[in-house]
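re: that chain from earlier
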Amino acid sequence: MPWKDGTGPPWLHGKFKGCGYRMTIPRQGILDVLNETADHLSAEDIYHKVHGAYPSIGLTTVYRTLELLVHTGLVYRFDFGDGRARYELAEGPKSIGHHHHLVCTGCGRIIDYTDFIEEEIELLKQTEKGLTKKYKFRVTNHLIQFYGLCEACQGTG
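^ sequence. v structure.
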């Protein structure tokens, strides 16, 4: 959770301040919750974790703070088709870096996919290059989600 003075780790404080915002206890608490998990948490999940340590922080504050953190690029928001936005820390000491998601439409399991092979990396580079040329659009990032059934939900066996 946040340091007693509410400033948090220097890497995060500097990045947030660089966006023109103060690091408050609720903001730091939400970032800490996201930094301490590998799960893709909903706003309600985050609220329950933060509220336990800081009962004065309300759900509305969590929603507003998440919107701000998404706007500043510190947090990513995902829609995995279950009707709930999910959040993930964009970077940090525990960040797994750039990755894609495999989403099971049976059980809802979300798998972070990071072990790209050379052919995938080359295909993405070519796709981004082609989009840039065709639409005169400079790609700065991308999000890829694959939907299907995990091994357990396929019923193989």
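The beta strands are 75-79, 85-89, 100-104, 110-113, 145-148.
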